Amino acid sequence: MNAHTSPLRLTDTALRDGHQSLLATRMRTDDMLPITEKMDAVGFWSLEVWGGATFDTCLRFLNEDPWERLRTFKRDMPKTPLQMLLRGQNVVGYRHYADDVVERFIVRARANGIDVFRIFDALNDLRNIEVPMRIAKREGAHVQACICYTLSPVHTIDGFVEMARQMAQMGADSVCIKDMAGLISPYEAYDLVGRLKATLDLPIQLHTHYTSGMASAAALKAVEAGLDVLDTANSALALSTSQPPTESIVAILKGRPRDTGLDLALLSDIAQQLTQIRKKYASFETGLFGVDTNVLLFQIPGGMISNLISQLREQNALNKLNDVLAEVPRTRKELGYPPLVTPTSQIVGTQAVLNVLLGERYKMVPNEVRSLVKGLYGRTPAPVDPEVRRKIIGDEEPIQSRPADLLEPEMEKAAKEIGELARSEEDVLSYVLFPQVAMQFFKRRARGEGLPAETVAVLAAALAREEAGALA
Questions:
Q1: 286-327 pLDDT tens trace
Q2: What own/partner pairs with CB < 8 Å and gap ≥ 24 does 381-384 have?
């Protein structure tokens, strides 16, 4: 079917990136369940429901098992492919994990309900997505490889197209342009999608954020160029640092050659319910309700700006925000122009804050920055500034190999450490990824904390009977 006349397909992100972008990922599973059946009935190409920060947040803040969330979604939305965001060799964490962890995570994620793995690497180092792609492919999932879109002197359309060509050779089923900061302009989107469609015989998907105000316009120009799938978020969780509104895109294309065919009335019904649910999370709102032009000036994603503000507030130094915003691009250049996406956004941002607050650049260097310069996250898009490299690691030579090749297997050791607190392989994986956070979650679970009141009462009664029997 001709990409210029076939219906545009949509991925709705409200159940993952929508609330991650706007509500600090705090939406509880129970609050999503009233809309899951309706979301499943819409006819989306996929629903993004897992990965990114959701895994960490479930364990750390919500006292929820992320695996149980996934199983619940699969049960309630059986008709629509469920999609997750996988950080390549970082999985859903903030460091590189050994290949055995990556393999078992993908195997269990697939078994628990993930149909589409969207896989990216923060440095666009394809060596870091090779193993995840191969395992997901082996498990029969749809493998979507990501180009982390960013702007710099070393990032070009030619480079992105070549990257996508290599992804196709690696077995990608589709390619996603992941514009995590909302930087892509309408005409750049048109040119990039057009080049990708002319080069690859694969579906092309666009993920962008509304932060700069260009997202809907960029989406429409991408559609004109032959885009196959677009990420949107239900209007109740769209705009600002989230995605373009699903309903608006559906309405714009209605009656045109790329008509999505989706039911606007059903989407509106979902939006009304989500709007009420969102009110429960007012305390987690980002406070960024309109267009943020700082993203165009400094190329800093909205979530990263919030993190910088938080760091400065803790140091009683909010008056230094403009200095930090100006420092980020300079630090990023010196560190080899990494795209600003988890975890590199946190790495560059923290170093920029330290450079400003301490009054001497690179006077203090976090271990993560040191690891980046050593090559332990992968190959940076451009070489690290030689003077900065010497200041951080001296005469030590950065590694040239794939970082995960240096890592010993981790699963067996982790299983012994967590012991009987782990009830499944999924629990072992949670522990490997977030040891302290998962350990505390498992201890709370063992005590019955966070369970429904009636369940806690039954457990308490059973324990009381056991104790009485022991005393007798």
A1: 777 788 887 888 887 766 776 788 788 889 999 999 999 999
A2: 381/123, 381/124, 381/152, 381/154, 381/155, 381/336, 381/337, 381/338, 381/339, 382/152, 382/153, 382/154, 382/336, 382/337, 383/336, 384/334, 384/335, 384/336
